[in-house]
Design brief:
By secondary structure, the chain is α+β, with helices and mostly antiparallel strands. The protein has 8 helices and 21 strands. Strands 5, 6, 7, 14, 15, 16, 17, 18 and 19 form a 9-stranded mixed β-sheet that branches.
Length: about 400
């Protein structure tokens, strides 16, 4: 039984079904659920992770998967528009931008260094005077995230995954052995193995992980543009604008003329059932950024706001591991604002962990709690997330 039908849950259920298991995927519905972090118009797909080669390589593997999905699916939901990384000063050793550029070069890629004048020429919406340095990452882009989840759920149904509507309340167990889950209606849904992929709801429904995971609300704005083609493709690739200092990142215009602007920060810790709304002061900050950096968007109307819910881990790494105290329970959570890009490989990682198989990625995502040696000095953060 897989609990939660976001991108983690859908990809995992599909992988397990393809391995021959009988799989039930439960969620409170509707599907895709509008409150899930993966149910949005876009998410970033990139290999740029500073000096962290592990995530660079994992994203590289995922990008191969995105190419396969584009070839196999009726609609191309991943758009390889490159990834624009720019700074307000020169890139320097130790900085996210410099180290990302260095790793790309060392691993055989050809990121194109881009100065302010070239930025304004090639991407005319940008004020190149404010961004004298940066680069275009050749291997990256963005995905239509909500549509991806919907497609995975359709594939689950076609493969024979049973989709059930239920609201998870607790793990059902006999001693330390998991026997299924209990719903809020009091019904026990039996299963030999339970994999919890509940996203931001994980620390609420798995209370012994509240010291390791927390639900965080992040603001997202959609600005309307009258000429979408001016804000898409190579003229306006997805971007990180001095992300370490400013937090701003964004996406090309959608077909209906929405330019999504996000802000990477600490966010607000909330219960995912009560995320609140985007603070009007954030809209003012966004307009200040646009006026300085993207003048053609400075007066664009806000046509949508969204409070995106994320499950941040204490160290920014995903948590995909067997619960050492509960036989038959696997937790797959802690996306920390940067997990969606790994959708094509995440199901295989979770399935291998559930089966007890070796997986080249799983050690980084091993079980840990707030008191473990790995995390006791850590603080809640998401150092690698730029796609919230």
């Amino acid at each position: 039984m897989v609990v939660g039908a976001g991108v983690f849950g859908a990809a995992t259920a599909l992988e397990l079904r393809e391995r021959g298991y009988g799989v039930t995927l439960i969620d409170r519905g509707p599907l895709p659920h509008p409150d899930a972090s993966s149910t949005d118009i876009s998410k970033m797909v990139r290999m740029d992770y500073g000096s962290d080669v592990f995530y660079h390589e994992l994203a590289e593997a995922a990008l191969d998967g995105w190419d396969r999905w584009n070839a196999d699916w009726p609609d191309r939901l991943y758009h390889d528009d490159q990834f624009l990384v720019i700074t307000k000063g020169l890139m320097e050793p130790g900085g996210f931008e410099y180290e990302s550029h260095r790793v790309l070069l060392e691993r055989g890629y050809a990121p194109e260094r881009i100065g302010g004048a070239e930025l304004s020429r090639r991407c005319p919406a940008w004020n190149g005077d404010r961004y004298p340095d940066g680069y275009l990452s050749p291997r990256g882009g963005w995905a239509e995230s909500g549509a991806v989840v919907a497609r995975l759920l359709r594939l689950c149904q076609e493969a024979g995954v049973h989709l059930a509507t239920a609201t998870f309340e607790a793990i059902a167990a006999t001693g330390s052995r998991v026997r299924g889950v209990r719903s809020t209606t009091g019904e026990t849904l039996p299963a030999d193995h339970v994999i919890v992929c509940a996203g931001a709801w994980t620390p609420a429904v798995i209370p012994w992980l509240r010291g390791t995971l927390k639900a965080v609300a992040q603001p997202v704005l959609h600005f309307g543009v009258e000429r979408p083609n001016d804000f898409r493709g190579r003229r306006f690739p997805p971007f990180a604008a001095d992300i370490s200092g400013s937090g701003w990142y964004g996406f090309p215009a959608t077909d209906d003329g929405r330019v999504k602007l996000g802000h990477h920060g600490n966010g607000r810790e909330v219960h995912p059932d009560h995320p609140g709304e985007v603070d009007p002061r954030h809209v003012e900050l966004a307009r200040d950024f646009l006026a300085e950096s993207l003048p053609p968007l400075a007066g664009a109307p806000v046509v949508g706001t969204r409070v995106c819910m994320y499950c941040d881990s204490i160290d920014g790494d995903l948590l995909i591991a067997r619960d050492p105290d509960r036989d038959g329970l696997v937790i797959a959570a802690g996306g920390s604002g940067h997990a969606f890009k790994f959708a094509p490989v995440i199901g295989g990682i979770v399935a291998d962990v559930a089966e007890g198989k070796a997986n080249r990625w799983s050690d980084r995502f091993a079980w840990r709690t707030s008191g473990s040696p790995r995390t006791e000095e850590a603080r809640f953060h998401s150092p690698t997330g730029t796609e919230r």
